[in-house]
Amino acid sequence: MSTAILYQNDSTNEVLFQLLSSTDHLTAITGKSASVTVQQRKKGGTWTTPLSTISEVGYGWYKYTGNAGDFDTLGTLNVRAYDTGTDVAEYVYEIQVASIAAATKTVVDAIKAKTDNLPSDPADESNTQAAFTTVNNTLATIVGYIDTEVAAILAKVNNLPSDPADASDIATLFGSVNTTLASIQTALTTLSGYVDTEVASILSKVNALPSDPADASDIAAAFSALTTLANAIKAKTDNLPNDPGDASDIAAAIAAVNSLTTAIKTKTDNLPLAPAAVGSPMTLEDNSIKDTTFDDSSLPVVGGGYGKIGTITWPYIVKNPDGTRLLEGVEVWISSDVEGLNRSDSKESDSLGKVVFKLTPPTSAEVVENPDAGKVYVWRQSTVWEFSNPDVEELDPVD
């Protein structure tokens, strides 16, 4: 038994579901991505609408993905989807801690973001030398500017009036000099701060580098894990048919069943309406059927073909006793009687909890004559789960 795995806070997760016709429970329904109602329930939470975008995949399958907020809670994630004219699709996913590959990618992305602006050769100090050359040139320009100002002051001092006590023009000149010097000081402070900022930025990036930047062993391990996962997916898809949507073999099988059904009906038309009962019927209180772990090999098989031939394909979804999970690997068989005497072969539920049988629904007239004519008794057996057997289902009559 397995459950589809999603990763916590991963916006690339894809939640898949299929919409089937509520009429025959088999035909895939397409074109519902804009109108389908989808709800999800995180562990310990309530039913809410997903934040992710819903899109159609094909063959009646849809997905929603793109918002990490839908996957922020570890544990079970229940999903249900439906639309007008469709069955309610119910699935169970498991949200786990992000995989090694995802964690590795996060670390690599963080390192890359910090090193993208580093020079191609961090050991090359030519750019630093160029920066200091620029500073020296600027300082030389400032010195020249000061020399020019001093020369101007000297020229004015040389032309002082005969009354040096009148220093009004000197005071004005020094005011201008002080303003210029203040501007120079501001420029120097800005330049010093710029150099400090650049040096600190370079130092922070160098400090964040690993001790051995050339060591890619963790990346290799992550790719190995991804390769293993890809091989596992390939092993499951290799046996799929070339065109899963091709139902021509199903149509041929139905035609063969119809022919066989006509032959059987010809032979049974003269049977009495209520053949004599054989022996005493087994009740649900009998321990041989109420214990869900009993060995069914002792039950007689009457006819042997029940569930193999019929005019419709009848699917059955196996869930855990409280109906919150789809169960894989459960042994399932059906019978036409509550005692389980006229039964089918056993089948095992798939990853979506589904098993499929072939049945022929009763006519309306047959149901009027025998109200139990359309009942199907479903028996389930598992080493993990306990079930209340049989589960009684009913086929819709046909005219």
Describe this structure in words.
This protein has helices at residues 100-115, 126-158, 168-207, 217-237, 248-268, 287-290, 364-369; strands at 4-7, 15-18, 37-42, 47-48, 53-58, 61-65, 75-82, 89-96, 312-317, 331-335, 347-348, 354-359, 375-381, 391-394. By secondary structure, the protein is an alpha+beta fold. It has 3 domains: 4-98, Immunoglobulins (Immunoglobulin-like); 119-207; 248-268 and 282-394, Sandwich (Immunoglobulin-like), CATH 2.60.40. The strands form 4 sheets. A 5-stranded mixed sheet has the order 1-8-7-3-4, with no helix packed on it. A 4-stranded antiparallel sheet has the order 11-10-13-14, with no helix packed on it. A 3-stranded antiparallel sheet has the order 2-6-5, with no helix packed on it. A hairpin with a 2-residue loop joins β5 (53-58) and β6. The relative contact order is 0.08.
What is the compact description of this entry?
With about 400 residues, the protein is an alpha+beta fold. Helices cover about 35% and strands about 20% of the residues. It has helices spanning about 100-115, 125-160, 170-205, 215-235, 250-270, 285-290, 365-370, and strands at about 5, 15-20, 35-40, 45-50, 55-60, 60-65, 75-80, 90-95, 310-315, 330-335, 345-350, 355-360, 375-380, 390-395.
Shape: rod-shaped
Helix content: 25-40%
Nearest-integer average pLDDT: 82
The CATH superfamily title of the largest domain: Immunoglobulins
Give unreliable regions as ranges.
Answer: 274-303
The end-to-end distance, rounded to whole angstroms, is: 40 Å
Order of helices and strands: EEEEEEEEHHHHHHEEEEHEE
Oligomer, anyone? single chain
Count of extended strands? 14
Q: Percent of residues in beta strands?
A: 15-25%
CATH topology of the largest domain: Immunoglobulin-like
DSSP summary: helix tally:
7
Strand order of the largest sheet: 1-8-7-3-4
The name of the CATH architecture of the largest domain is Sandwich
